[in-house]
């Protein structure tokens, strides 16, 4: 039987037996909720996506067999720009394109053998889904957590929409890659800043990768300092500036404002106005040239009333950060130093450190030290001076101690059609009104003219114009739609009961939440993961969930990499279109020469993807699943390798052939012998270590261990050492590797005469009595020098020996790198380092 026939057979068996439809509130079992970040229905799944889903499936299958009541659902993050762009190109409604893709991708996922509970499936573009978030938005609006204001926004000129700060990467739109512009627009915001401290402090309780927590900490950006008031000379106006370094005020030589600062509105100088227009196109990358213009205005120095500081407009001061103003202390800030050198502004040193060589004419000194040139602060430690200057200015009403967060409120307005409509109407008489609950959901029109030029909702007259339910007069609907991260910020709670009448089923959420294991890419560390945490806290306050954090543990899986290819016209080429002709790479469809590029994350835009359908046809699902799980630790990147795939294919074929031969051996041929004890010992040790490795998500190590057990028992078999324990051990091999290669192991299990379904078979347990193994002592050397000894079970693989040796010299390797390990069986391990 070929792979696809085996896979189809067992997929149908699982579905018929409802193996994966979870039982609600099973009090006899502990619950376990495993979830991958749900996909955008872009059209096709490629093998780059497969690793994410396979990891989740292995965990779900393993936990089920351990006796957990497992929730493992799936759905679709279905709103977004690609559907709208496809609608423009294909001249179809985005919904048509989206649901067609969902149907195709669902069939692809089923072919992989993923054990989802499909009864909970939904797409976020379903009105039955987004009507609940519209109601939730109205609740936030009434609570003051959703508000509307004019603000400077990031405008993507290609996608014609506003981007949140988190969606601007190196000054470019995260999807289009176009340079982002700054515009003043009236936008809707959610007050995520009200939760800044809790979002920060709760990170410590999460079992998340440290780098993800650090990224969120940095994005929230807690700073302790002071807000200082600067009086504008000849005016009763003041400029407020938050600073973490108020003790450097005696070194201030200028003020710098954002182009959007309100005091600039009355300036008429054409040069200044031209600079403001130019500054709108600036982003905050550190490699950009710092530019500015003197406004001619001055402020009175808060510590030296007889002196003034010039007010400049600078392109590096962000409109939406702090008050959009800062004071420049060039001697102790690198950016200010660069600006001062450019415009010949004074550089005044106010911190000295005898232990450092300081030359402020060349570079800023940004460390701590002793105060100088600072009047009443002279001689103080710079940290002490910080508190003293705040106290001094506070007595004069010129400053107050404050905590500041870099985190900005979440701008949720998008000027695109294919998104959830914001449930607001605008009435000239009654103002801004939320749509009445009985009129939810506000659905998108089916006859919209989606052209890509502006917002199709804004030009749809019959949809846009409505009546005010208060005064019965004319009103208009809000034509902005929600940022699509709105939908992905709560979907995990909906899965607890996707058919609930309300936003969530609180009883179901109390049972299932939080998600025990969440899986997804690290690119979502700031965007999705931060928003989901905020939403969960807000949902908790509205009574929708009982938890304050959505995800207990997080695994950020590494990407699948593949070489890129370009032809002689600099066009991207799919890998399966590249052939080697006499040592020269060519495009088999055009004959043009092809050039091999770098290893990069699989991406449709660069065409370095491997089509899932064709690879399933050639190798089968289990081979691909085994490859993506066995090559590297799950958090590390893996390179797509045909040789690696074929190696996995050979291993699976060996198991199939072995099972056929083992099944054909009569019981009378299996006789106890000297190897019986060793087989039992290795079998129970493998159960123990494999189970521990799966619990720690060390899938590649687990696979190496089970292959070691298989190699041992098959070697005995082919040497005609036919002890009965060979069959027991092989059955354990099949049971252990079943979550990774579920189809072929079900088939082998059946071949061995078993009538049960492995997907519903309990996980094997080891017995301590068999773990006592014959040990051997190995000396461990580093570059020939003895470092100690290790105890190893006789017959251990080189991987296990190397692993134990490296544990012994862990501290020594902190400053060195391992080049190779030379293992002399049962004697020594020599680690060569440099």
From TrEMBL:
It catalyses: tRNA(Leu) + L-leucine + ATP = L-leucyl-tRNA(Leu) + AMP + diphosphate. A motif ('HIGH' region) lies at residues 39-49. PROSITE patterns: AA_TRNA_LIGASE_I (PS00178). Residues 401-562, 600-641 form the Aminoacyl-tRNA synthetase class Ia domain. Residues 34-168 form the Methionyl/Leucyl tRNA synthetase domain. It comes from the Bacteria. Keywords: Aminoacyl-tRNA synthetase, ATP-binding, Cytoplasm, Ligase, Nucleotide-binding, Protein biosynthesis. It is found in: Cytoplasm. The keyword NAD does not apply. Its EC number is 6.1.1.4. Belongs to the class-I aminoacyl-tRNA synthetase family. This is Leucine--tRNA ligase. It comes from Candidatus Phycorickettsia trachydisci. The gene is leuS.
């Amino acid at each position: 039987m070929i792979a696809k026939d085996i896979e189809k057979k067992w997929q149908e068996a699982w579905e018929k037996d409802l193996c994966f439809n979870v039982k609600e509130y099973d009090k006899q079992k502990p619950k376990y909720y495993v979830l991958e970040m749900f996909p955008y229905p872009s059209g096709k799944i490629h093998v780059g996506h497969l690793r994410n889903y396979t990891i989740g499936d292995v965990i779900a299958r393993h936990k089920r067999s351990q006796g957990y009541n497992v929730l493992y659902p799936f759905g679709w993050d279905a709103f977004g720009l690609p559907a709208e762009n496809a609608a423009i190109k294909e001249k179809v409604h985005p919904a048509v394109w989206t649901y067609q893709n969902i149907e195709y991708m669902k069939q692809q996922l089923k072919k992989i053998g993923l054990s989802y509970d499909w009864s909970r499936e939904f797409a976020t573009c379903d009105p039955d889904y987004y009507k609940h978030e519209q109601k939730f938005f109205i609740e936030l609006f009434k609570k003051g957590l959703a508000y509307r204001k004019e603000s400077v926004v990031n405008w993507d000129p290609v996608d014609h929409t506003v981007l949140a700060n988190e969606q601007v990467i190196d000054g470019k739109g995260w999807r289009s890659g176009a340079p982002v512009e700054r515009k003043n627009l009236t936008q809707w915001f959610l007050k995520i800043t009200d939760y800044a401290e809790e979002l920060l402090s709760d990170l410590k309780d999460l079992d998340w990768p440290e780098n993800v927590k650090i990224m969120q900490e940095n994005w929230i950006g807690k700073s302790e300092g002071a807000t200082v008031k600067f009086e504008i000379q000849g005016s009763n106006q003041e400029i407020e500036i938050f600073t973490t370094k108020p003790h450097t005020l005696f070194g201030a030589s200028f003020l710098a404002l954002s182009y959007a600062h309100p005091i600039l509105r009355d300036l008429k100088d054409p040069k200044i106005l031209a600079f403001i227009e130019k500054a709108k196109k600036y982003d905050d990358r550190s490699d950009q040239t710092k530019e500015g213009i003197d406004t001619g205005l001055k402020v009175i120095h808060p510590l030296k009333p007889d002196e003034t500081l010039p007010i400049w407009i600078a392109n590096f001061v962000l409109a939406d950060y702090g008050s959009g103003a800062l004071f420049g202390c060039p001697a102790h800030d690198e950016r200010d130093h660069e600006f001062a050198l450019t415009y010949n502004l004074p550089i005044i040193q106010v911190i000295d450190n005898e232990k450092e060589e300081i030359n402020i004419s060349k570079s800023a000194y940004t460390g701590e030290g002793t105060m100088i040139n600072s009047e009443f602060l002279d001689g103080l430690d710079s940290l002490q001076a910080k508190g003293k200057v705040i106290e001094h200015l506070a007595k004069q009403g010129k400053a107050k101690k404050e905590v500041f967060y870099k985190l900005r409120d979440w701008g949720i307005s998008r000027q695109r059609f294919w998104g959830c409509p914001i449930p607001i109407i605008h009435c000239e008489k009654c103002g801004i009104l939320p749509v009445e609950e009985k009129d939810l959901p506000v659905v998108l029109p089916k006859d919209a003219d989606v052209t890509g030029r502006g917002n199709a909702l804004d030009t749809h007259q019959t949809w846009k114009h409505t009546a005010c339910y208060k005064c019965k007069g004319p009103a208009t609907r809000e034509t902005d739609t929600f940022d699509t991260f709105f939908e992905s910020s709560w979907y995990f709670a909906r899965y607890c009961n996707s058919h609930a009448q309300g936003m969530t089923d609180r009883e179901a959420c109390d049972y299932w939440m939080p998600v025990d294991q969440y899986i997804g890419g690290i690119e979502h560390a700031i965007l999705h993961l931060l928003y989901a945490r905020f939403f969960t806290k807000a949902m908790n306050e509205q009574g929708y969930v009982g938890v304050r954090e959505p995800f207990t543990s997080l695994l950020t899986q590494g990407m699948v990499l593949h070489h890129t290819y370009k032809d002689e016209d600099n066009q991207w080429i799919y890998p399966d279109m590249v052939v080697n002709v006499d040592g020269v790479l060519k495009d088999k469809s055009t004959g043009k020469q092809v050039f091999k590029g770098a290893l990069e994350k699989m991406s449709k835009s660069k065409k370095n993807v491997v089509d899932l359908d064709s690879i399933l046809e050639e190798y089968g699902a289990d081979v691909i699943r085994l490859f993506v799980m066995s090559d590297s630790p799950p958090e590390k990147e893996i390179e797509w390798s045909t040789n690696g795939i074929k190696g996995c294919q050979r291993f699976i074929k060996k198991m199939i052939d072995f099972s056929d031969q083992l099944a054909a051996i009569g019981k009378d041929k299996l006789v106890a012998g000297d190897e019986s004890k060793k087989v039992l010992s290795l079998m129970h040790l493998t159960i123990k270590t494999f189970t521990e490795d799966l619990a720690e998500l060390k899938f590649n190590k687990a696979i190496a261990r089970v292959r070691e057990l298989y190699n041992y028992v098959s070697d005995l078999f082919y040497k005609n050492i036919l002890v009965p324990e060979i069959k027991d051990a092989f059955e354990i091999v099949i049971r252990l590797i079943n979550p990774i290669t579920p189809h072929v192991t079900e088939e082998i299990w059946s071949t061995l005469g078993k009538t049960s379904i492995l997907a519903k078979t309990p996980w094997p347990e080891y017995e301590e009595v068999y773990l006592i193994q014959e040990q051997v002592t190995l000396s461990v050397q580093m570059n020939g020098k003895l470092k100690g000894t290790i105890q190893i079970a006789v017959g251990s693989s080189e991987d296990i020996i190397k692993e134990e040796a490296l544990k012994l010299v862990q501290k020594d390797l902190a400053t060195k790198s391992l080049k190779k390990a030379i293992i002399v069986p049962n004697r020594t391990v020599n680690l060569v380092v440099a």
